[in-house]
Write a structure and sequence with these properties.
Number of helices: 2
Number of strands: 27
Helix content: under 10%
Oligomer: single chain
Distance between the termini: 49 Å
Radius of gyration: 21 Å
Structural class: mainly beta
Order of helices and strands: EHEEEHEEEEEEEEEEEEEEEEEEEEEEE
């Protein structure tokens, strides 16, 4: 038990850092013995203990408080707190992990051995996972309710026979993460206003499934799958991404209410009959589409930006170019 008495009658901001070689993460974040706090206090739970023999989900009972701008962070480190954060000795970017493999010294790994879930967070707000690596389960990070406001992932890794890398709900986010060996990288479940930024997602089915109203998808490298981003409902912003080797469409719509803002993306298509942007029949529209590259190494793309409702190329396209983006090493 940690008791902090400031001797003051007014509320004060208090940050408590707890960590080390925990006996088990499941015990640290679940049940009645978890770190709790009152008033405006944020908590950092640090761990450098890899857990290779897990057989069941780690159900998270801790959370922050969005009304008080209070966070609960579960953060991996190697030898000193912060050394896996950006700029730290053991930091590994998502791109480096993709190009060179996940470095075991640069994230704390939880191997689930076929369990249904890695971390489950139900109704947990302002809960942040950082510098963690979850492998071998159905859902790695599962925000499985609509009340996980402000929660998300920073610099996490997901690998090895994962169905869904992370399940997002309202106002959640994924930042600078690497997903590989997944059917779906980011799987939105009522994930309105969720953000995915600066990630590398290598998926076999869809990189980002079911982007929903208010979502912002920016600065990502999205590799493989039938679709890069499938979109549902209302306004979705897709900017500054590289889509690589999607076998059907880089971006597609799936609902009549869908409206897309698409700008400054590179679409690298393996076949000329694939789509950069595909508005499926009677399913939404593009509000803005500008300054994109759509390219296939095998020839001119038949219908890069296609509206199946009217069987025509999208109208009002500006500044789109069909040119080799000149990747220094296209295979990587």
């Amino acid at each position: 038990t940690i008791t902090i008495d400031t001797g003051l009658t007014d509320d004060v901001d208090v940050d408590v850092w707890v960590g080390g070689a925990l006996a088990s993460m499941a015990a640290a974040v679940g049940g009645s013995a978890v770190p709790t706090a009152t008033a405006t206090s944020s908590r950092w739970l640090y761990t450098n203990l890899n857990e290779p023999l897990l057989a069941g989900a780690m159900t998270v009972s801790v959370e922050g408080d969005i009304s008080e701008n209070q966070f609960f962070r579960i953060i991996g480190f190697n030898t000193l707190p912060g050394d896996m954060n950006i700029g730290g000795t053991y930091y590994q970017s998502a791109l480096d992990a993709y190009q060179n493999g996940i470095d075991a010294a640069k994230s704390v790994k939880f191997t689930m051995n076929g369990a249904a879930d890695g971390f489950i967070a139900t109704d947990r707000e302002n809960l942040i996972f950082q510098n963690l690596h979850v492998a071998q389960c159905t859902n790695a990070f599962n925000f499985n309710s609509a009340l996980c406001y402000g929660s998300g992932l920073i610099n996490c890794k997901v690998s090895d026979t994962i169905t869904k890398g992370t399940i997002l709900t309202k106002s959640t986010f994924v930042d600078s993460c690497y997903f590989t060996g997944c059917s779906y990288g980011v799987y939105n479940n009522t994930g309105t206003y969720s953000n995915v930024r600066d990630c590398v997602i290598d998926a076999s089915t869809e990189c980002i499934y079911s982007a929903i109203g208010g979502a912002v998808i920016s600065g990502n490298l999205l590799i493989g799958g039938a679709y890069g981003v499938s979109c549902l409902y209302y306004n979705i912003s897709i900017t500054n991404n590289i889509f690589y080797n999607q076998t059907t469409a880089c971006i597609k719509t799936g609902n009549a209410l869908c409206a897309l803002f698409i700008s400054n993306n590179v679409f690298y298509l393996p076949a000329i009959d694939d789509y950069a942007v595909y508005i499926t029949a009677s399913n939404g529209a593009v509000s803005y589409c500008d300054y994109n590259i759509a390219y296939s190494p095998v020839g001119a793309i038949t219908n890069a930006f296609y509206d199946a409702t009217n069987s025509v190329q999208l109208a009002d396209l500006h500044n789109q170019i069909d040119v080799n983006p000149q990747f220094a090493d296209a295979a990587n």
